[in-house]
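Example 9 (inverse folding). The structure is encoded as follows.
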C-alpha cells in the first residue's frame, strides 16, 4: 500500500534492485522529470539519457483525463504512459512512494498500475500572510504536497498584519520583515512548475484590511462622529479603492504569471456579534457617507448588493487579466436571487455565523442551488488551525461532495477541496503545532481527494502513512503512528495520547531511536522525523507522569 492509494494495481512478489543514479527519457519532459525525481527522492540523482531506465511516453490514451497515467515497473525498466505533464508527475509520485532506499540501492516492487484522481481540485492553502515561514521549510511543504498528488497550492498573501511578498505598488512597511523577495517568488514559481502545482494567489479583500487602511486612511469609511471608527473593511464607495485593487491584482498576477485563478478572499465582512469586544472589526458601509452616495448612484438597495457590486467589479478586473476569480462564499445570501457572477468559483468554508453575514436560509446545498460551482473546505473537517478541527475520524469518512450535506444532483458541482493551514508561518509559538499536525493531515487529505474512498485505517495503513511523510529511506516496518496513538499527531505535549498507545516502553524508545537516525532521512523528511521523535518522547514522558 502507498498513500495516496492506487486505484488499479497488479503487484508481483518480486522486488527489483536499481541504482540510485537514475536515467530518464521522457521526450520534452525529460529535464523536468529528472528534477522532479530528485525532489521526490533526494537520495537519488537523475539525468537524461537515450538509453534510460525510466521511459516516459506521451499517448492519447488519457487525452480526456490528463492526470491519469499507466506505470509498469519490470526487470527491463520502468515505463510510463501519460498524456500531459500532470500525468507524468503523478506517475513519478507513485514511483517515489513505492520506492525504498536501502544499502545504496533503490528497491521497487514489480508492478503494473493505472491510476487517476477522484476529483479535479486537490489543494492545500498556506497562510504566510500572518508571518512567513523559512523559505526552505515552505518549499519542503510544497514538495510533500506534490508527492501526495495535490495539484494546487493556494497562497494567502495579505492579511490585517501585513504582506508576505515584495510588491512595488504597495509601501515597503506593509511587508513582513521576513517576507519573500521577488527572487524567492520566482523560485517558488519555478519549483511549482516542476512539482505540477498550480498556484492560486489570494489577496484578501475588502475585509481583513486593517494595515492596508492604516497606510491609505482615505480608503476608510467615513461614518458620523458618534460611531467608533473601524479599519476592518475597506470602503467600497470610492473609486480610489478600485484603482488601488486594480494595481494590486495586476502586480500579483505578474508575480504569479501561470495558473487559472486569482482568489479575492471576500470572507468575514464583519464581526457584529463581537462588537462589544472588537468594535474595530465592523463594516461601516451602512453608515458611511461615501458608501451611501455610492449606493444611490449605482442603484444598490443595501449592503449585500454593495458587496455583490464590489465582487463583480473585481471579477471583471480579474477576467481582463485572463484569470478566473475565486472567493470565499460565506457572504452569499441564499434567500435572494444570485447576485454574483456564475463564472466565479466559490470557495465554501462555512455559512456566516450570525452577526458576520447572511445566515437564515443559507446552507452549502442552497449555495449550490443558486447555480454556483464550489470548492468545499468546510472548516470543521479541513482546517488545521488554532482550534482542533480536522482529526483522524473526521477525515476517515468525510467526502468533499457529501459533507456538508448536498443533494445528489448538486454533487457534480463540487469539484474538490483544499486543506487549509491558517496561521502557517505565524511566529507565535502557539502555532508551532503545524509542524506536528500538518504533514500527516496533508497526506490523509491527499489520499482522500485522490482515491475518494473511506480511509481504511490499519497497521498497514499506518506504515504507508509513515513512509509518505518520512520518505523512501524510512526503516522497513517503521510505524510512527503506533507510538503516537493517532494518525494526526497531538497539537501539544499536554495533548499527547498515551492511553491510545499499545507499545511497550522499550518499543517506544526503539521508535524514537529510529526517528533520530542521521542516515535515514533527507531534506524535509529529516525535519519531520525530528518532530515525530518529539511526539514519541511526549508519549513516553506523559505515560511516566501518569503512572508515577
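The amino acid assigned to each position is listed next.
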Amino acid at each position: 500500500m502507498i498513500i495516496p492509494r492506487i486505484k488499479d494495481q497488479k503487484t508481483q512478489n518480486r522486488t527489483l534492485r536499481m541504482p540510485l543514479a537514475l536515467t530518464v527519457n521522457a521526450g520534452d519532459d525529460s529535464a523536468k522529470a529528472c528534477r522532479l525525481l530528485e525532489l521526490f527522492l533526494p537520495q537519488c540523482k537523475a539525468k537524461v539519457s537515450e538509453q534510460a531506465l525510466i521511459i516516459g511516453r506521451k499517448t492519447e490514451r488519457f487525452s480526456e483525463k490528463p492526470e491519469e497515467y499507466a506505470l509498469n515497473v519490470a526487470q527491463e525498466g520502468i515505463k510510463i504512459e501519460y498524456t500531459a505533464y500532470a500525468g507524468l508527475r503523478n506517475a513519478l509520485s507513485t514511483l517515489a512512494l513505492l520506492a525504498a532506499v536501502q544499502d545504496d540501492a533503490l528497491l521497487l516492487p514489480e508492478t503494473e498500475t493505472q491510476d487517476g484522481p477522484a476529483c479535479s481540485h486537490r489543494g492545500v492553502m498556506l497562510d504566510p500572510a500572518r508571518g512567513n515561514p523559512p523559505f526552505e521549510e515552505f518549499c519542503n511543504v510544497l514538495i510533500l504536497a506534490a508527492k501526495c498528488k495535490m495539484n494546487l497550492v493556494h497562497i494567502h498573501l495579505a492579511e490585517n498584519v501585513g504582506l508576505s511578498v515584495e510588491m512595488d505598488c504597495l509601501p515597503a512597511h506593509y511587508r513582513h520583515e521576513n517576507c519573500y523577495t521577488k527572487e524567492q517568488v520566482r523560485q517558488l514559481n519555478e519549483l511549482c512548475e516542476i512539482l505540477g502545482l498550480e498556484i492560486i494567489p489570494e489577496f484578501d479583500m475588502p475585509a481583513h484590511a486593517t494595515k492596508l487602511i492604516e497606510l491609505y486612511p482615505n480608503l476608510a469609511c467615513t461614518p458620523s462622529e458618534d460611531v467608533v471608527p473601524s479599519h476592518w473593511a475597506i470602503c467600497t464607495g470610492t473609486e480610489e479603492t478600485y484603482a488601488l485593487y486594480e494595481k494590486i491584482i495586476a502586480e500579483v498576477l505578474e508575480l504569479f504569471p501561470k495558473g487559472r485563478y486569482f482568489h479575492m478572499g471576500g470572507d468575514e465582512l464583519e464581526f457584529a456579534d463581537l462588537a462589544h469586544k472588537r468594535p474595530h472589526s465592523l463594516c461601516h458601509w451602512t453608515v458611511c457617507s461615501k458608501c451611501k452616495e455610492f449606493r444611490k448612484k449605482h442603484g444598490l438597495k443595501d449592503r449585500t448588493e454593495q458587496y455583490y457590486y464590489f465582487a463583480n467589479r473585481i471579477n471583471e478586473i480579474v477576467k481582463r487579466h485572463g484569470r478566473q476569480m475565486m472567493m470565499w462564499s460565506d457572504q452569499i445570501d441564499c434567500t435572494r436571487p444570485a447576485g454574483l457572477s456564475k463564472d466565479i468559483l466559490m470557495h465554501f468554508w462555512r455559512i456566516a455565523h450570525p452577526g458576520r453575514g447572511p445566515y437564515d436560509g443559507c446552507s452549502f446545498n442552497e449555495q449550490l442551488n443558486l447555480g454556483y460551482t464550489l470548492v468545499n473546505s468546510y472548516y470543521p473537517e479541513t482546517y488545521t488551525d488554532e482550534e482542533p478541527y480536522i482529526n483522524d475520524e473526521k477525515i476517515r469518512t468525510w467526502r468533499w461532495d457529501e459533507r456538508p450535506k448536498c443533494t445528489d444532483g448538486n454533487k457534480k458541482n463540487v469539484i474538490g477541496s483544499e486543506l487549509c493551514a491558517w496561521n502557517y508561518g505565524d511566529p507565535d509559538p502557539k502555532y508551532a503545532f503545524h509542524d506536528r499536525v500538518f504533514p500527516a493531515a496533508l497526506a490523509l487529505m491527499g489520499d482522500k481527494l485522490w482515491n475518494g474512498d473511506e480511509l481504511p485505517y490499519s497497521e498497514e495503513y499506518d506504515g504507508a502513512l509513515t513512509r509518505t511523510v518520512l520518505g523512501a529511506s524510512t526503516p522497513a516496518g517503521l510505524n510512527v503512528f503506533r507510538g503516537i496513538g493517532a494518525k494526526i499527531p497531538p497539537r501539544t505535549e499536554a495533548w499527547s495520547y498515551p492511553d491510545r498507545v499499545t507499545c511497550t516502553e522499550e518499543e517506544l524508545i526503539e521508535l524514537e531511536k529510529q526517528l533520530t537516525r542521521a542516515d535515514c532521512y533527507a531534506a524535509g523528511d529529516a525535519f519531520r522525523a525530528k518532530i515525530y521523535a518529539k511526539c514519541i518522547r511526549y508519549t513516553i514522558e506523559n505515560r511516566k507522569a501518569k503512572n508515577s
